[in-house]
Specification:
Elements (H helix, E strand, L loop, with lengths): L3 H11 L2 H4 L1 E3 L2 E4 L2 H15 L7 E4 L18 E4 L6 E9 L6 H11 L4 E7 L3 H8 L9 E6 L7 E2 L2
Parallel strand pairs: 5-6, 6-7
Antiparallel strand pairs: 1-2, 3-4, 4-5, 7-8
Length: 160
């Protein structure tokens, strides 16, 4: 999956404003993480290479999995070969006005169990400032990549 970064950049750049901000009747548009994630999933799947063994899955509940019994795990995205230990990437997404440092704990857990990459993607107008602030909670040696997506129709980019 050497080209995952390019897939993510292209998917985020294609994301329209109606998925970045959800229009609300009689109220200002707001960030809605599920709406954003579902569109990212769609854009990634459109581009997904047919020749790879890896699959993109969203919100895989790890309840009942023996390796994850101590913690309820439902990552936003997994890139893996289901039913095997061939695990490539786990990704958590957060809007810039609502973040949870437990995401770092969750991402560390997946890295511990053989995932090769972990991405924390923050989106919204203030995403870069929020990401830089929250990066202070990363531990020395953490392999968590921080990505920022500031505007619809603009590509996300890796901050770390």
């Amino acid at each position: 999956m050497e080209n995952f970064d390019q897939l993510l950049v292209a998917a985020t750049q294609e994301l329209g404003s109606e998925y970045f901000y959800l229009a609300i009747h009689n109220a200002p548009a707001i960030y809605k993480e599920r709406v954003y994630c579902y569109e990212i999933y769609y854009q990634l799947r459109r581009r997904w290479p047919k020749e790879t063994l890896y699959r993109l899955n969203g919100e895989v509940d790890k309840a009942g999995h023996p390796d994850f019994s101590k913690m309820r795990m439902i990552p936003d995205f997994l890139v893996h070969q289901p039913g095997t230990t061939n695990n490539f990437l786990v990704m958590e997404v957060k809007r810039c006005d609502s973040y949870d440092l437990n995401d770092f704990r969750k991402l560390r857990w997946f890295l511990k169990y053989g995932y090769k990459r972990a991405i924390w993607l923050v989106y919204g107008q203030d995403a870069e400032n929020v990401a830089k602030e929250q990066m202070k909670a990363l531990k020395k040696g953490d392999l968590i990549e921080v990505w920022v997506h500031k505007e619809s129709t603009q590509p996300a980019y890796r901050l770390t």
